Amino acid sequence: MKFVDEFRDKEVAQTILARIHEAAGRLQKPVRLMEVCGTHTVALFRHGIRALMPEQVRLLSGPGCPVCVTPTAEIDAAISLARQPQTVLATFGDMMRVPGSESTLLKERAAGRQVLVVYSPLDALKAAQKRPDHEVVLFGVGFETTAPLVASTALQAQQRGLRNFSVYSAHKLVPPALAALVAADDVRVDGFICPGHVSTVIGSQPYEFIPRDHGRGCVIAGFEPLDVLEAIWRLLRQIELQSPQVEIAYRRAVRPEGNPEALKRLSQAFVTVDAEWRGLGTIRRSGLEFREELSAHNAKERFDIQTRPVADPPGCLCGEVLRGAREPEDCAHFGTTCTPEQPVGPCMVSSEGTCAAHYRYGEAGRRVEA
Fold it and tell me: Which of 89, 120, 223, 224 has its CA 20 to 30 A from that of 80?
């Protein structure tokens, strides 16, 4: 069977896939399932899982890529910080090529700005220690997975009295985005494949409102192809039994209560605020901002940063793709004027972006005859 032969355990994959087809056949209605993790998006495409689904089952990619959901105004803010005199802007590598309204961080570095690519927030802290005559600002982007690391780093800076280190927080929270998706009029989602990495931090409890208030199921999945197949089967079983719930199919890493130490760090450093998401607009209490006690390390407090809402480039459908309303191939830019080498929108920049996955894996992302 095409693609299944490439699985590490072909027999188990065939067994789960058979269960998926049987359950879909019994349902006899279209089912739309959404993954909300960029790593899941890549796994679905790389292993051809979309192509193996029965006709009734449609898999949608949601706002699971933190690079992609960061609005242009926040990219512009980071560029503005990079242009400040005696300032080093530290960022993760996947933010370098994300287009702002007029530039990118990669172009700013080429123009002589001090833009430092880091692999951990602690790298930015070390840079501040080594350069006491410079302001080092970390562009903090990510979901609940990376936010505790940034929180711990800011708390360390405070403890050490390191006054030249600050963070521009653009962190986002996943559960409020799911609430916005289930309430949206233009997208129907029958069940969610919830992110494994995020759930190692927050646990399963924050998703309980989805089955309770909206009657949709959730399955927290790992990242092996068999994990993803199992999550799809579990969701179909929930729909068939009319028993929506939150299931943990990634118990080797996720506990219902999450990671208490990571949650403690988040609580010590941040408060929740309304935040702007690309494609989803402003979502209530979906962002993280530093507590007043850490204002000395809050770049938004320390620098005069002027930002304004900026629309996506003309014709770019990243916003619609992020909420599962459109597919990348619907965009006129896709694969022509927008490629990973020359991206128009952020969904083509990140390796976890839906457009990048469609572009890279091609046939594996499209339904084929088994």
Answer: 120
pLDDT over threshold 70, residue 67: yes
User: What does each C-alpha distance from 129 to 132, 162, 298, 302, 341 come to in angstroms?
Assistant: 6, 7, 17, 18, 35
pLDDT at 365 exceeding the cut of 50: no
153 DSSP assignment: H
Write down the pLDDT at residue 364. Answer: 41
Same domain, 168 and 262: yes
Residue 236 belongs to a domain: yes
> Which residues make Cβ contacts (< 8 Å) with residue 236, sequence separation at least 6?
20, 23, 24, 27, 31, 57
The pTM (predicted TM-score) of the whole model is 0.92
Which residue's entry shows tokens 């027999």?
11
Cβ atoms of 147 and 266 closer than 8 Å: yes
Task: Determine the structural domain holding residue 81 and report its residue range.
Answer: 71-173+258-302
Any domain includes 311: no
Largest CA distance in the chain: 68
37/86 same-domain check: no
Q: Is 253 helix (H, G, I), strand (E, B) or coil?
A: coil
272 and 160 both lie in a single domain: yes
